[in-house]
Design goal:
By secondary structure, the protein is an all-beta fold. It is built from two helices and 24 strands. The longest helix has 4 residues. This is F-box/kelch-repeat protein.
Length: about 325
């Protein structure tokens, strides 16, 4: 089994808990091939990653496995949209073993033809409810994605998808782009497009769950010039961060981490560290532990990288074939 957040995978995401609880919990997922099944377990985020609970995962994907859109307040948003036009979106609370299937969205292949889309999941702190936003780019006759996109928003209080016609979003959020939720908004890596369809620059697009508006957050020039290549968005502590996967000469590779120290202040972007991998044995950055260690994949194993000592530790959790 390959450990990657872009393939049948091992995914780590923090489950929210009350602040008096220590240590926090990690929700871990891996997918076995025989039998074809997704396995979820909760672990304490302590030095030994002690098991807290095995979870019953009652859902079955037509695309082999679900994509974890995000988690917030103990609720996980799942989408069955990896390889074909399937519109199953599920809100799942594993701690109480309850789930809810969202109704079918309005923009689908049968009504609009070919499209690409991304989904955001977060919490509206004013109305105290979870919301799901779906950003869909319908293709034109020349094969380009039409902007502004079709935007639909689902909230539990409304109980249906509502079209947002005033979004004005001119940037392109790539298909299935990973999101992070911070400061009341979901965020994606996106890009501007020139008139000939080529990519102009990378940036961050956010959608605030309270005022239901899109905003753009600019990246440092060196990252914006990468045009979306090997750039991943994440959260480090209470800050927005971006990981840049850089291939150096020979077999050398490095992960550069940029942190926005003051939210939405472009000048506060700071290059915090670089993880140098001399054998290209490290996979993608999955997330961060409470102690700020970085979670990565190495040879089908989950490893933790200590930013201070620059040591990599195998956490003893791996996929099974």
């Amino acid at each position: 089994m390959v450990l990657s957040h872009h393939s049948p995978s091992f995914i780590s995401t923090h489950l929210n808990r009350n602040k008096q609880h220590d240590p926090p919990l990690l929700l871990l997922r891996y997918c076995s091939e025989r039998p074809r099944k997704e396995h979820f377990s909760i672990h304490h985020d302590n030095p030994t990653l002690d098991d807290y609970a095995e979870l019953d995962f009652p859902f079955h994907s037509v695309n082999w496995y679900f994509r974890i859109v995000g988690s917030c307040n103990g609720v996980v948003c799942l989408s069955d949209d990896h390889m074909c036009y399937v519109h199953t979106i599920i809100l799942w609370n594993p701690s109480i073993r309850k789930s809810f299937n969202l109704p079918r969205p309005s923009v689908v292949f049968q009504t609009h033809g070919p499209f690409m889309h991304s989904i955001g999941f977060g919490f509206d702190s004013i109305n105290h409810e979870c919301k799901v936003v779906r950003v869909t780019y319908v293709g034109d006759d020349d094969g380009f994605d039409i902007v502004p996109p079709e935007v639909e928003l689902y909230s539990l209080s409304r109980g249906c998808w509502q079209s947002i016609s005033y979004c004005g979003l001119q940037s392109i959020i790539p298909e299935g782009s990973p999101q992070v939720y911070i400061n009341g908004a979901v965020h994606w890596i996106a890009y501007d497009r020139k008139t000939n369809g080529s990519i102009h620059r990378s940036l961050i697009v956010s959608f605030n769950m309270c005022d239901e508006l899109f905003w753009e957050i600019f990246l440092p020039d060196s990252l914006a010039a990468q045009c979306g290549i090997d750039i991943e968005i994440n959260v480090f502590g209470e800050s927005l961060c971006v990981m840049h996967d850089v291939f150096l000469s020979g077999s050398n590779q490095t992960y550069d981490m940029w942190v926005m120290e003051k939210y939405n202040v472009v000048e506060s972007w700071t290059k915090l560290f670089a993880i140098i991998d001399y054998q290209q044995s490290l996979g993608p950055v999955i997330g961060f532990r409470k102690n700020s260690e970085v979670l990565l994949e190495r040879s089908e194993n989950l490893v933790s990288y200590d930013l201070k000592t620059k040591e990599t530790k195998n956490l003893g959790i791996h996929g099974v074939g």
